[in-house]
Backbone:
């Protein structure tokens, strides 16, 4: 005994008697049937087919009516019983037998009956040789009406923005039902649906349509009371609305130097409502001004010192659109005070955010355009309660820098809030970026310079520069800067030889713009040394000349001269003994004032006869209260008068004593009579005193080691003393 198409591992055969056997098979999959073969001892082959299947598994019986004259019931068919050949499923619906109510997996039955209010019960039985299942449903068919599709749909009273639709019902009983109908309107890739209600509804009015536009419509309906499901759709109906004036333009402005560019977006096909013939721009400058255009921008030379209201409208064969107003702000410091920041998109989307402004009564306006080349200006209007925007990526190009401005929309002129430099996507900068790249030797350094990089060649934000230099020996060094405005880099302390310099720009996407030059570093030349020494020598000469030129002023400020004391008075009438540096003889001046009396003292042991030695006579020169010339008041001199009497006794020490008021210094100037008087002389000119001091200083230098003030003895004669 064996089974076709099954291996022996799943089979188990048992002999019951000589002529009876049992076979057990564990099935992994269920098929329609299995063929069993038997072979007897004579070699004859016999067999049979075993059918494997399931009882019916149908469920969810639902009954409804469409024509209000019959009941149509449907249910979900269960799994396949695999007994279609030997034992197909038979259905009984309310006692009536149906052989094949299911087709292509859909099971339904239709039974004529009187449909009126009231609940009814429907019974369905499904049966085969392995078993059966019974399904039940109860409902009032007047609450389960599945309407047929409307007939004869047509458009009537077609206007520019509204039309009337009509349709018919083939069943008279539909006219007595409260209906709700859906009208689906489709134009291009846009679809909208509206609902309408009414008793036996057979018409609807569509409003808010686009003028001069083609539409497709269709209708389906259902019962308004006890809604069961939507009926079938009608056929499509196509119509075209009438034309109208264009829609209001979306207007914006940009200020460029002394001109204002008024821009407006091109009307879409759904906004033109006909063929556009042109545009009209009007503004007021004391007198109304108008200008026509067939493009989408106009440059106006307006007074930037005040605001201007500009109106723009479009016209077609049906008329002119309502004007769009834009107020151009006057020139002010607000725009220049706004700083510019940088932003880069992610995943090819440029997202912006900004701080809200209380001035934005009608929202915000974001505009953008290429920063370095001519390109379209685009803008986006944002509602007042939003402070974010995503720029459409179909208007932005990767690797191109854009200038983005954010304005507050107000009742008056727009107010600039923020500015951005933006890339939707930064790209690698191409090699050969740096123009005019040169190398200049400076002692043992090499200064590499280049021209500023134009913005049009920057496909990413430059954050700095790096200079890589390689010597003949293969050593590689780098120097860098994080200043994006830099135009020089210095390679320091280089050895003599040839170097290769490679300059690159640093960006968020890596280094780029590599540019390479070669340069040879030479030892310093004698000419360079001489030139350097010459520059230093000339600088020193210039400093010396300036110091010499202004030496008197410098000396007066830094080290002012201290004048030495000068005495310009006469000491004796004739001959004169003067104190060097202090006394100037003024014998001819009769206006002398007696200041003090000089006394002559004879030293003990001095011979009474003959003459007195000069060494034994001392002269004390008194210092007056004007004794020193300090640059403010002149020094009064001392005039000694001739003897006024005889000397009664010469046995005493003939010394003249007086006290120096400045320091108590006694100055011996030789013999003086006892009764001499001290007078003050008249001050003389300072220049004459200085000339006399020069002559006296020659003899005074010999005695300055012993005396603070040295007397000149050549001007003093020892008097002849007679005996008493």
Residues:
């Amino acid at each position: 005994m064996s089974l076709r198409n099954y291996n022996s591992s799943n089979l188990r055969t048992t002999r019951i008697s000589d002529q009876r056997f049992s076979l057990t098979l564990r099935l992994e999959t269920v098929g329609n049937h299995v063929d069993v073969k038997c072979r007897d001892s004579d070699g004859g082959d016999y067999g049979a087919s075993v059918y494997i299947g399931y009882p019916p598994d149908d469920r969810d019986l639902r009954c409804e009516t469409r024509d209000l004259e019959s009941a149509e019931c449907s249910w979900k068919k269960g799994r396949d019983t695999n007994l279609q050949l030997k034992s197909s499923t038979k259905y009984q619906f309310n006692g009536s037998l149906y052989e094949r109510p299911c087709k292509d997996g859909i099971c339904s039955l239709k039974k004529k009956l009187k449909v009126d209010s009231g609940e009814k019960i429907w019974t369905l039985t499904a049966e085969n040789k392995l078993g059966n299942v019974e399904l039940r449903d109860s409902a009032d068919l007047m609450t389960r009406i599945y309407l047929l599709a409307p007939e004869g749909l047509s458009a009537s009273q077609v206007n520019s923005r509204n039309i009337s639709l009509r349709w018919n019902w083939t069943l008279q009983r539909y006219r007595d039902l409260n209906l709700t109908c859906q009208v689906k309107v489709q134009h291009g890739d846009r679809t909208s649906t509206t609902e309408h209600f009414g008793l036996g509804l057979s018409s609807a009015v569509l409003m808010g349509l686009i003028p001069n536009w083609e539409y497709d419509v269709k209708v389906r309906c259902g019962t308004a009371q006890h809604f069961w499901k939507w009926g079938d759709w009608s056929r499509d109906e196509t119509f075209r609305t009438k034309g109208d004036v264009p829609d209001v333009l979306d207007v914006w402005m940009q200020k460029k130097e002394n001109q204002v560019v008024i821009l407006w977006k091109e009307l879409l096909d759904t906004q033109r409502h006909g063929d556009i013939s042109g545009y009209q721009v009007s503004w007021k400058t004391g007198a109304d001004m108008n200008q026509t255009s067939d493009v989408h921008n106009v440059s106006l030379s307006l007074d930037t010192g005040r605001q201007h209201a500009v109106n723009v409208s479009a016209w077609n064969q049906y008329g002119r659109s309502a004007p769009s107003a834009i107020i151009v702000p006057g020139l002010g410091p607000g725009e220049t005070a706004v700083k510019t920041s940088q932003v880069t998109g992610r995943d090819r989307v440029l997202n912006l955010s900004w701080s809200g402004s209380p001035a934005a009564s009608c929202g915000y306006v974001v505009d953008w355009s290429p920063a370095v080349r001519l390109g379209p200006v685009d803008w986006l209007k944002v509602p007042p309660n939003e402070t974010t925007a995503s720029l459409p990526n179909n208007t932005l190009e990767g690797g191109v820098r854009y200038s983005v401005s954010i304005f507050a929309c107000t009742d008056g002129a727009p107010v600039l809030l923020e500015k951005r430099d933006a890339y939707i996507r930064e790209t690698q900068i191409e090699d050969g970026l740096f123009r005019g790249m040169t190398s200049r030797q400076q002692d043992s350094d090499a200064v590499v310079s280049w021209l500023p990089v134009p913005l049009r060649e920057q496909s990413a934000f430059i954050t700095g520069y790096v200079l890589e230099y390689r010597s003949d020996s293969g050593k590689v060094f780098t120097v860098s800067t994080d200043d994006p405005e830099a135009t020089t880099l210095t390679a320091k302390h280089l050895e003599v030889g040839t170097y290769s310099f490679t300059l690159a720009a640093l960006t968020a996407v890596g280094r780029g713009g590599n540019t390479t030059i070669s340069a040879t570093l030479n030892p310093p030349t004698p000419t360079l040394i001489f030139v350097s020494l010459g520059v230093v020598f000339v600088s020193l000469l210039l400093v010396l000349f300036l110091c010499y030129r202004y030496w008197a002023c410098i000396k007066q400020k830094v080290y002012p001269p201290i004048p030495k004391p000068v005495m310009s008075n006469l000491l004796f009438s004739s001959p004169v003994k003067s104190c060097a540096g202090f006394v100037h003889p003024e014998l001819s001046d009769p206006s002398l004032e007696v200041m003090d009396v000089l006394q002559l003292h004879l030293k003990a042991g001095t011979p009474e006869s003959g003459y007195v030695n000069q060494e034994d006579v001392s002269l004390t020169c008194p210092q007056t209260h004007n004794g020193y010339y300090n640059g403010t008041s002149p020094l009064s001199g001392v005039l000694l008068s001739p003897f006024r009497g005889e000397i009664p006794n010469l046995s005493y020490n003939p010394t003249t004593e007086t006290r120096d008021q400045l320091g108590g210094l006694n100055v011996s100037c030789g013999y003086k009579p006892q009764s001499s008087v001290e007078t003050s002389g008249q001050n003389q000119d300072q220049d004459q005193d200085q000339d006399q001091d020069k002559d006296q200083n020659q003899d005074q230098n010999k005695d300055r080691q012993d005396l603070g003030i040295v007397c000149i003895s050549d001007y003093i004669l020892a008097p002849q003393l007679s005996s008493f």
Summary: The first strand starts at residue 2 and ends at 3. Helices lie at 269-272, 334-337, 526-549, 551-558, 686-700. DSSP finds five helices and 45 strands in the chain. The longest helix spans residues 526-549.
